[in-house]
Amino acid sequence: MKKKIILACASFIIGVVLVGCTTGNNTKSANSSDNDAQTVHLMEENEVASMNTLVTQDTASINAQVHVFEGLYNIDQDNEIVPAVAEDMPEISEDGKTYTIQLRDDANWSNGDPVTADDFVYAWRRLASPENEANYMFLLDGTVANGSEIINDGMDPEKLGVKANNDKELEIQLEKPVPYFTSLTTFPQNEEFVEEYGKEYGNDSEKILSNGAFTMENWDQSSMEWDLEKNPEYYDADKVKLEKVNVDVIKETATAFNLFQSDELDQAEISGEHVKQNEDNPNLQKVPDSKVFYFKMNQKSNDKDTIFANEDVRRAVAYAIDKEGIVDDVLADGSSASYGYIPKDFVKNPETDADFREDAGDLMETNEDKAKEHWEKAKKEIGDEITIELLTSDEDAEKKVAETVQYQLQEALPGLNLEVKSVPLNNSIDLTRNGEYELAMGRWGPDYQDPMTYLESLRSPNNTNYESDKYDDLLDKITSDYGNDPEKRWQAMIDAEKTLVEEDAAIVPLYQQTRSLLVKDNLKGIYYPNFGASTIFKYATYN
């Protein structure tokens, strides 16, 4: 069994590849005079956990990192991969296994040091080293040459198939052709700076060295507010118009809306009734996203089967949830019900151009009769009265979804008592990653533009303790056998998703997010990629 570290909630690598009051203490007025110097005021729904890209596990961190660091390639406003620190797109060998990449001559770190190919080699090796416990280490397993042997068998990380031919030329050797590899590349790290701070690297703004459009100021891991300031050493600084971006953590929709109305935020994310009330507001933007929210059902705890090891329990829960009610009545922000793990409008059939969801169809649709049928079967094993804890984050929308599901399941499944436990997002991620939960709200945003970014997250072993030889075998064929056969690869991914969601009922897809944002008229040029970071404001302007 391969040893893989699978992240509970993610979306990260596009750098080689956003009623109560929870705000920072010094929220500034968006109309204050500092806007003369191109200062804007934005929000995040959660704290930044770390600026060490090896341990990234949350959207807020990703959104900060993509502006503070820059890798070989970026995502543009059309969701296309474009050169960044790389001078051009890679030169790829005929067999698809060797990538040669030239770096820009004018790329520098914020201390003035040049960004070199060795900075990428160092970052790749650190990513591969098991001792660093990098959350995305698994992306190198079976892709970059010797990645699997380093991760699983103790090979020296220096043997990873990445090398610097000179200061400005990087060469990457793959195990096999990887169709989406250009969107997998990672952020560089300055070896001298990282080694100076060791395990403290990336824990506060004094321990960050930037090569991106902004530097990060006034931040540590407990901060509810921080600043991103224009980096004068950035190679494209002339095109970066914003001098400062002030970010506040705001977890409640009502608070975000009120701050936007009082001109203390230039952009606010809202949901539910606030979206309904603002449908005719010209400041409202609805942004489709590829992030999927779903239920994780932990099948083992302390090496013992849990209630969710019972397939009838999993099917009863899956069939009982009214997803359309959740997106229409609770979220009301344009999000759509999910009947599969792969989102719509994300990837297309390479032969016919059909959307993945069109080809794969709807899986495990709501069915009250089937829910009751499987629940009655399950009760013969689990008993007539059962209590389950539902773990969720303390984000406003997610808590409301959890409360709605609590009502739905208790109504549909007699004898079930569902208790909701809400904790800060980073705590929720840690608990699910460590398997310390029964039923939990999960979220997955794509790391790269391919269905495998979703499917690989549930390969054995994973933090739901779901195991399936059939599912793992399909993933092996997709990665090892069908790299040069797009049609077979596409069908195998459809089969794998069906195995996961319908045949085994291992997870319960809930909804695909659409973000509802209020944006000031004079804030222009922000865009929202469908993978990687959720918000890009590098070239935004404030007039």
> What is the average per-residue confidence, as pLDDT, rounded to a whole number?
90
Percent in strands: 15-25%
Total strand segments: 22
Give a short account of the largest sheet. 8 strands, mixed
Overall 3D form: globular
Helix percentage range:
25-40%
N-to-C span:
56 Å
Structural overview:
The longest helix is centred in the last third of the chain and has 18 residues, at 486-503. Mean pLDDT is 90; it is low at 1-29 and 31-35. The chain contains 15 helices and 22 strands. Strands 1, 12, 13, 16, 17, 18, 19 and 20 form an eight-stranded mixed beta sheet that branches. It is α+β, with helices and mostly antiparallel strands and 543 residues long. Strand 3 and strand 4 form a beta hairpin. It has helices at residues 59-68, 117-128, 147-153, 191-197, 253-261, 273-277, 311-320, 323-331, 356-360, 368-382, 396-412, 425-433, 452-455, 469-480, 486-503, and strands at residues 9-10, 39-44, 73-75, 81-83, 91-92, 98-102, 162-166, 169-173, 214-217, 225-230, 244-249, 267-270, 284-297, 300-301, 304-305, 336-337, 386-393, 416-423, 439-444, 507-519, 523-524, 541-542.
